[in-house]
Amino acid sequence: MQLKDIMNKTYSAWMDTSAPCTDVALSSRVRLARNLGNNPFPNHASPAVLAGVANQVENAVRQTPELSGLKVIHLSEVSAQDRQVLVEKHLISPQHAKNAENRLVILAADESVSVMVNEEDHIRIQTLLPGFQLNDAYKLADKTDDYFESRLDFAFDENIGYITACPTNVGTGLRVSIMVHLPALVITGQVKAVLSAVSKLGIAVRGIYGEGSEALGNMFQLSNQITLGHSEQELIENLASVTMQVIEQERSSRGKLIAEMREQLEDRVQRAYGLLNHARLVTSQEALKLISDVKLGAELKLIPEVNGKTINELMVIIQPAYVQYLAGRALSPTERDAGRARLIREKIRTGREGNEK
Predict the structure, then answer these.
(1) Which of 24, 54, 165, 182 could join 41 in a cystine, given CB atoms 3.0 to 4.6 angstroms apart?
(2) How confident is the model at residue 212 (pLDDT cuts 50, 70, 90)?
(3) Averaged over 96-119, what is the pLDDT?
(4) Rounded CA gap, 17 and 129, in Å?
(5) Are 129 and 137 in contact (CB under 8 A)?
(6) pLDDT tier at 189 (50, 70, 90 boundaries)?
(7) What are phi and psi of 69, to 5 degrees?
């Protein structure tokens, strides 16, 4: 497996629509923050220390049979645009993409596991699965963590747990999150109240790329705010309980939209579908808005010919860096908008043809 194989593959495992609750929950993510003992955190470490950490982690991958299937990528050997594609594919953070020297990302072929080395912490293990699968995502992350810990000396205190760069991660070092699509709550004007209530229950609400990003296309990331003083299972169960309430509220709102304003809703989603099928220029923000409407229409069987996997795939490949990567060159803003519109038309057509077979 080479980096180009990952970049060229526009479909990722988290896009599967056969998982639980994929009508609202797009993906489940678990992240474990770990640091090597007797080494300063990355933001205080010298280049030599960072290089040493990266070397230790890379050796751990090579020496551990269970990790041998993972691909080690040196970000310093990856262009800025290609690093941004990795961000758009949810494999690394925007922060990790900016600082390439002595930084690694370690990836599974299906992208269900990605490990950032020398981001905010020395090691950040991330697992990403489709739909509402927090427990399975945690089991995969925990197993991967065990493999690394068998080779590396993690900073750990018997009283407080894992030592991390940010105090909010101290303890378990666990961050669990679910990406949810809430178009009906947005349309009915209820989303602000719902997300405000969620925040009061200790759940952070973020945008499509996590902390500091915008909630585009009616997509929101729900995650735990603290880790200290709680077990991993408690954190997972709390987020799962709150998320299920949000899912039920979104489903209820969708039912009301169908019952009370079906024609208006059909007009909205069919207009969005028409634009995606025929537009020649479309920005990434407009595309996400239209895709959100079409996804809603598909989930409510108002646009039965639309493939759910195709819609999930579109959410990624319409992003600016990915459009340019697939084009094979840097594009002007207008060229990007034209290329994006063409990609959308082609992907919808092939998805529709696949449904008809």
Answers:
(1) 165
(2) very low
(3) 96
(4) 11
(5) yes
(6) very high
(7) -80, -5
Question: Which residues are 176's β-sheet partners?
Answer: 30
| Strand partners for 210 | 207
CA angle 160, 132, 241 (to 5 degrees): 60
Please report, for residues 181, 268, 274, the alpha-carbon distance to residue 290 in angstroms, rounded to integers and kept in the order given: 13, 9, 10
Average pLDDT over residues 307-327: 93
The pLDDT assigned to 238 comes to 93
Does 213 have pLDDT greater than 50? no
Task: Give CA–CA dist 218/207, Å, rounded.
Answer: 9
Residue 184 has pLDDT above 70, yes or no: yes
One-letter amino acid for residue 153 of the chain: D
Question: According to the model, what pLDDT value does residue 225 have?
Answer: 81
DSSP 159: T
On whether the pTM is more than 0.90, the answer is yes
Specify if 325 maps to a domain: yes
How far is CA 85 from each of CA 112, 187, 287, rounded to the nearest angstrom? 16, 31, 17
Q: In what order do the strands lie in the sheet with 113-117?
A: 71-74, 104-107, 113-117, 123-130, 25-34, 174-181, 219-224, 203-206
Answer for the pair 174, 224: CB distance below 8 angstroms, yes or no: yes
**β pairing state of 174-181 and 25-34:** antiparallel
> Would you say residue 273 lies in a domain?
yes
Closest Cα partner for 54 from 77, 32, 31? 77
Give the structural domain span for 310.
251-356
Return mean pLDDT, the chain: 93
Which has the higher per-residue pLDDT, 246 or 206? Answer: 246
Confidence of residue 3 (pLDDT cuts 50, 70, 90): confident
Average pLDDT on 304-318 reads 91
> Is 274 among the domain residues?
yes
* Residue carrying the six token digits 């925040």: 199
Q: State how many domains the chain has.
A: 1
CB atoms within 10 A of CB 231: 12
Burial (CB count <10 Å: 0-12, 13-18, 19+), residue 331: middle
Long-range contacts, stretch 36-41, CB < 8 angstroms, 24+ apart: 36/122, 36/123, 36/152, 36/153, 36/154, 36/155, 37/153, 37/154, 37/155, 37/156, 38/153, 39/122, 41/120, 41/121, 41/122, 41/165
